[in-house]
Amino acid sequence: xxxxxxxxxxxxxxEGANSTLRCNFSDSVNNLQWFHQNPWGQLINLFxxxxxxxxxxRLSATTVATERYSLxxxxxxxxxDSGVYFCAVVDYKLSFGAGxxxxxxx
Amino acid sequence: KAGVxxxxxxxxxxxxxxxxxxxxxxxxxxxxSWYQQTPGQGLQFLFEYFSETQRNKGNFPGRxxxxxxxxxRSEMNVSTLELGDSAxxxxxxxxxxxxxxxxxxxxxxxxxTVL
Lengths: 106, 115
Prior knowledge:
Largest sheet of chain A: 6 strands, mixed
Distance between the termini of chain A: 40 Å
Number of strands of chain A: 11
Structural class of chain B: mainly beta
Order of helices and strands of chain B: EEEEEEEEEEE
Helix content of chain A: under 10%
Oligomer: heterodimer
């Protein structure tokens, strides 16, 4: 199956800082999604982005499918951005990375 | 539109018992997938149902089973529970076409504790 690697595993930020999370995948994909897992465990959709760049408020994502990676940018971080961020790619199922745990300190 | 719903939200069982979890997809969605999340193994795919048929299955023992009803609601069952089955079980639904390019939307999960 497709291997998905996320880095860094942990990220500690001061409120207002910017950050970049990376997702590498081992094969070409039809679908790549970024999720934020809230403290209660629910996976919240951030982006569906098999290629190109998208922005949603302070978050943006870029996927370079030919080079098999995706980046998630968090700008002007807030404490509510804390949590675990997952990328997931699809062959016949979602294959998840191990996640990046983001902690934003006030 | 209402999101994906899962019931119950929390369950405590003892070893050897069985458990049934329920998932109602977003209205109009015909594909339902189940995932298990544990601290050690992360998020792992259990199975996927589309139009009442199991279309794909992950690498889990036969104690894990599921089904889908004509209204697209899905249930998963775990028999002869083991301590290692303690996990967050997440259900996801995707749109009518069921293609791999469809966005998947997750429910809030059922947290199962096996004592």
